[in-house]
């Protein structure tokens, strides 16, 4: 006699040793679309809907998924995680974005100088911008912005670049970080420059890469973080003259790093070794970091991270273990932390997160507010996996 065989109905699979088509391939994270195809976050209609980016805020982090949904976690005292999230959000929570409800990029920032404030902003699909936090957890569109391609959120100010290269900034401006030529608060976006390829907002300073690779910085310069060989604040974009062909720039709390085709340079505050030059001396102009093959850079509050061959190297302030190398000793030069297969790296005030090639996110450092996203408030000196709902 012949052997009985069966064929599973569309969308179902036989993924266990037991007979029968027991696995829903459309929703099961361990078998999404096919037996053994594992998702990091969600299985949606038989396809993994995993993170494609991750960013650091202040005491919070956010991520954009493949389908455009935004999820955030961590401290939510000011609504920076979203209106439906608890004050301590220990695992990712979906943000209810305005129409069309999906995003291409998200960023976050904040500060606790006197009064704690934190916010997040996202570029919605189609190029509009929505922001939330600073006391309002409901995302609200920034009505005057359209066709935005990139956004960056600092301590108290935000900047965005549109598809035509126009740069807009708004918010806190006590040190001229908005770049409008004065120090008055800007409640609405102000056009600052044109021909801009990329912008990054730091503590109270800002840097932008012009098309062609020239670098300009402005705002607070008390620690030399503008890289212009002085400590005088600048309220308008000012050229950083001794670095060219810049491909990426990142602003930390009070230090800055930039990458050209082959090298990384850092400048500004260096009390914790955040410049990576094996000293603790403040520098007013770009200093070469002895680390080759850097793919990307990320800055936080006194610490710096890079990817080299998809592995994480970090240096600087190591409070709460935010360098991820298993201790709390600050490092004045790059150290490899043992995390590989990384596609993106981001640093917040006291925590760090990395996106891996399999779509998972690992975070480390301070977890007082659940900002590691692992379901606890226990800090970790080494990378720990974000737990998705």
UniProtKB/TrEMBL annotation:
InterPro entries in UniProt: Ran_GTPase-activating, RCC1-like_dom, RCC1/BLIP-II, Reg_chr_condens
UniProt xrefs under Pfam families: RCC1_2, WD40_RLD
Keywords: Guanine-nucleotide releasing factor, Repeat
Top-level taxon: Bacteria
Residues covered by the RCC1-like domain: 142-386
SUPFAM superfamilies on file: RCC1/BLIP-II
Name of the protein in its database record: RCC1-like domain-containing protein
Organism lineage string: Bacteria, Pseudomonadati, Myxococcota, Polyangia, Polyangiales
């Amino acid at each position: 006699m012949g052997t009985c065989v069966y064929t599973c109905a569309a969308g179902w699979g036989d993924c266990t040793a037991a007979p029968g088509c027991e696995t829903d391939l459309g929703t099961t994270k361990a078998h999404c679309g096919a037996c053994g195809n594992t998702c990091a976050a969600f299985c949606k209609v038989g396809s993994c809907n995993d993170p494609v980016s991750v960013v650091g805020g202040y005491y919070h982090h956010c991520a954009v998924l493949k389908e455009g949904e935004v999820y955030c976690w961590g401290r939510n005292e000011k609504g920076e995680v979203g209106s439906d999230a608890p004050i301590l959000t220990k695992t990712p929570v979906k943000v209810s974005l305005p129409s069309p409800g999906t995003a291409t990029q998200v960023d976050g920032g904040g500060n606790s100088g006197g009064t704690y404030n934190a916010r997040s902003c996202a570029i919605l699909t189609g190029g509009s911008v929505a922001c939330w936090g600073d006391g309002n957890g409901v995302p609200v569109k920034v009505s005057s912005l359209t066709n935005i391609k990139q956004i960056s959120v600092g301590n108290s100010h935000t900047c965005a670049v549109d598809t035509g290269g126009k740069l807009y900034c708004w918010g806190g401006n006590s040190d001229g970080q908005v770049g409008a030529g004065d120090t008055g608060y800007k409640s609405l976006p102000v056009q600052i420059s044109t021909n801009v390829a990329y912008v990054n907002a730091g503590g109270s300073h800002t840097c932008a890469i012009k098309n062609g690779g020239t670098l300009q910085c402005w705002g607070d310069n008390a620690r030399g973080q503008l890289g212009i060989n002085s400590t005088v604040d600048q309220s308008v974009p000012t050229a950083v003259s001794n670095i060219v062909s810049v491909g990426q720039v990142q602003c930390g709390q009070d230090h800055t790093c930039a990458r050209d085709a082959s090298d990384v340079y850092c400048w500004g505050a260096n009390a914790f070794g955040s410049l990576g030059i094996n000293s603790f001396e403040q520098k007013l102009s770009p200093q070469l970091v002895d680390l080759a093959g850097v793919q990307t850079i990320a800055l936080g509050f006194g610490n710096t991270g890079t990817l080299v061959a998809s592995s994480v190297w970090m240096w600087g302030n190591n409070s709460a273990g935010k360098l991820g190398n298993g201790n709390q000793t600050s490092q004045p030069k790059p150290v490899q932390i043992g995390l590989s297969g990384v596609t993106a790296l981001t640093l917040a005030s006291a925590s760090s997160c990395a996106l891996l090639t399999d779509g998972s996110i690992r975070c480390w450092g301070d977890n007082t507010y659940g900002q590691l996203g692992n379901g606890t408030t226990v800090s970790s000196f080494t990378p720990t996996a974000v737990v998705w709902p």
